[in-house]
Amino acid sequence: MSNNDFEPRHLETLDRDLGRLSNLEMATAYVGRPLVAPAIGLIFIIMACLLAMLLLGETTNTFIIVVAAGFGAYMALNIGANDVANNMGPAVGANALTMGGAIAIAAIFESAGALLAGGDVVSTIAKGIIAPESMQTASVFVWAMLAALLSAALWVNLATWIGAPVSTTHSVVGGVMGSGIAAAGFAAVNWATMSKIAASWVISPVLGGLIAAAFLWLIKARIIYQEDKIAAARKWVPILVGIMAGAFATYLAMKGLKKVIKIDLGTAVMIGAMIGVAIWLVMIPVIRRQSEGLENRNRSLKVLFGIPLVISAALLSFAHGANDVANAVGPLAAIVQASQSGNFTDAVSIPLWVMVIGAMGISFGLFLFGPKLIRMVGSQITKLNPMRAYCVALSAAITVIVASWLGLPVSSTHIAVGGVFGVGFFREWDSARRMRNARLAIPDPAEQPTEERRRRKLVRRSHFMTIISAWIITVPAAAGLSAVIFLVIRSISGGS
Predict the structure, then answer these.
(1) What's the CA gap between 108 and 225, in Å, rounded?
(2) Which whole number is the average pLDDT over 178-192?
(3) How far, in Å, CA of 412 to CA of 436, rounded?
(4) For the range 135-141, what are the long-range contacts, defined as Cβ-Cβ under 8 Å and sequence gap of 24 or more?
């Protein structure tokens, strides 16, 4: 090596080359980063297929069940990415939970809800939408369920990619209906059940919005608008936490313990009432200690609602796991039963490994793909603080619990987003009411122009219209896609 190699111009060339390599590495990392989550998701799907293969061994229908397990895992990932994001968004948007904390809480309680209390709605998805006896053979029934799973997963995946909080329940119900019609005509659809489900789709967001608005009205009337806000919070926050604890205990007693002991509704309500009262008494000194030294203003109240919001988020995750795991494992459980026994008309028995795929897939989907929609629901529809977010989460939890108890596959997306809209529209109404009262007391000669009043709306109308449009199109889109997939599967299988 000569001394000329160390001349300044050679060193500058070397620096430029190293700089280019460094830039190339940075660009490669930047390009590769978006591919990490899909790669991990693909690994999970492959592991679900391997789990099915190992558990089933060599049988004539192993291949079909393995493919179905992959589709079910894919659907579960999309549920976690879309639906769970809608449920955890309010807590994150109110800055009561970090993104990591929300994901951890959701993963634990979603899995617990799915494994402990996820059976009833699974049966509704698998058998309640289409009449199994209308199918000619078990093979046709299996193809219909495969098409429903894949079409629902593809549609939710597309919606998540473009940032639309659609209903995974709508998607899978539409998928089952579309493949059922393609397989056996319109007579295959249980229209009585479909009408009941369709009614719940309308009722659930309205009910969620009304309950959220009612709780916000209670908080404003009894705490925020009081002269001594801190004293009022010491009285009412423990009561609100007790209500939430009572609802959770009632649901767990009625659903989660049914595998151990059969508890009727009256007994469950009594258990919930006792636990709710106990939690109310426990929270009185906790809130008193938290409120010491706080200033008498609205900002201070946010501290007191931190614990209730975190607990309500956990409650909502449990209820969502119990209700929406059906969207992934309902068709999968039906496929497993029909493939192994040839019986596709009796009630569905749900293997543990099927429930595990659903529960784990929801958690993985939330962790890998959930933050995008969490931010959208939590901060881009209306501004949320801990009090408003608590109202949304509690109303959504109560509505989902009632729906799951009734065996209705309602949309948790509709309920949660309906709660957000309910809070936002109540704020608009309350703000307009107070402004009218102020103008009556002190007339303002300068009336605000129409454009200014529109700008001051507390709910973003563009998001409202986009979300409603996405809700409307989901069922027909999933049904049409499912029908096409079913026809392709039947054609590949030779139509036998």
Answers:
(1) 37
(2) 86
(3) 36
(4) 135/183, 135/184, 135/188, 135/344, 136/184, 138/338, 138/339, 138/342, 138/343, 138/344, 139/493, 139/496, 140/183, 140/184, 140/490, 141/183, 141/334, 141/338, 141/344
Give residue 196's Cα distance to chain centre.
21
All residues at 6 or more sequence positions from 214 whose CB lies less than 8 Å from its CB, including other chains: 395
pLDDT averaged over every residue in the chain: 78
Q: What are phi and psi of 420, to 5 degrees?
A: -60, -45
pLDDT digits over 194-237, tens only? 887 777 777 788 888 898 999 999 999 999 888 888 899 999 99
Among candidate residues 168, 173, 172, 179, the one with its CA nearest the CA of residue 199: 173
- How far is it, in rounded angstroms, from Cα 314 to Cα 300? 23
Which alpha helices (H) appear in 220-305, and where do they start and end?
Answer: 229-251, 265-291, 298-304
Q: What pLDDT is recorded for position 30?
A: 42
pLDDT surpasses 80 at 346: no
When computed from its CA atoms, the radius of gyration of the chain, rounded to whole angstroms, is 26
pLDDT, residue 29, reads 44
SS3 assignment, position 393 = helix
CA separation for the pair 189, 380 (Å, rounded): 38
Identify whether the C-beta of residue 309 lies closer than 8 Å to the C-beta of residue 87: no
Q: How far apart are CA 416 and CA 423, in angstroms?
A: 11
Q: Convert the pLDDT of each residue in 79-113 to its tens digit.
A: 888 877 777 778 888 887 788 888 888 888 888 87
Candidates 327, 341, 261; CA nearest to 478 is 327
pLDDT, position 153: 93
* 3-class state of residue 258 by DSSP: coil
Contact residues for 220 (Cβ-Cβ < 8 A; gap 6+): 430
Tokens of 297: 């203003």
What angle (nearest 5°) sits at the alpha carbon of residue 294, between those of residues 292 and 297? 145
Surface-to-core class of residue 131, CB atoms within 10 Å of its CB (0-12 exposed, 13-18 middle, 19+ buried): middle
* Helix (H) or strand (E) segment spanning residue 3: none
Q: Is the pLDDT of residue 452 over 70?
A: no
DSSP string of 86-150, one letter each residue: HHHHHHHHTTSS-HHHHHHHHHHHHHHHHHHH-HHHHHIIIIISB-GGGSSSHHHHHHHHHHHHH
Report which secondary-structure segment, H or E, holds 257. Answer: none
